[in-house]
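Notes taken during the Thursday session

The instructor put the following on the board and asked us to keep it in front of us for the whole hour. The protein is Molybdate ABC transporter substrate-binding protein. We were told not to look anything up and to reason only from what is written here. First, the residues (250 in total):
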Amino acid sequence: MRRLIATTAVTALALALAACGSGTDSGDGTTLHVAAAASLTSSFEEIAMAYEAEHDGVKVDLQFAGSSDLATQITNGAQIDVFASADEKNMDKVKDAVDGEPTIFATNTLTIITEPGNPKRITGLTNLANKDLAVVVCAPQVPCGAATQTLLQRQHVTVDAASEESKVTDVLTKVTAGEADAGLVYVTDATGAGDKVATVPAKGAGQVVNSYPIATLDGSPRADKAQAFVDFVTGPEGQKVLKDKGFGAP
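Then, after some discussion, the predicted structure tokens were revealed:
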């Protein structure tokens, strides 16, 4: 399998990823480039620190964005070593660039968040259909948005969203900044926000589960270290971090 050569997509993210992957092994050590779903930010920052502590001379450079954006950058030639997606659909998009079979390492579900104290007294999904509320959700093309669509359809709820965000972290930011009354995010994002939000269970969310795959990318000049990072994420130390952040078991 080979990695496609970049010809288009001159975006800031593409440039950043392509630049960081242009070859950073040096006499001072190795930089491992990891692209991960935005919902993994807190977890992977902690995992990367633990990985670096056990691997002398290796620095982990983390790039976070929506999984669909990251998949696009990979197919356009961004030179990264490891990809962790928030769903299998976006991992499938880069299957020609993946070395071997991806491994499912975590699961996640959705919940409703509101401003602290829940001033609008939202009690469930049906309240989100109220046109007087400013509700933000993820865009359909990103994993949290696809899960949101599935959940709302199954619960027969129609939401006229104030905005559709490209990253679940942007939904969280709009609610914590007071720019929205409510939003649908992953349980892990709500847990990580602590008392900055109030959490309201979403009926049926337990039946709409996102599985997170991780894989090394074909042609990585740091293949052994990339595989070691994947093994770390799927091993006891990585799994403990993910569990503590609220992720479900694979």
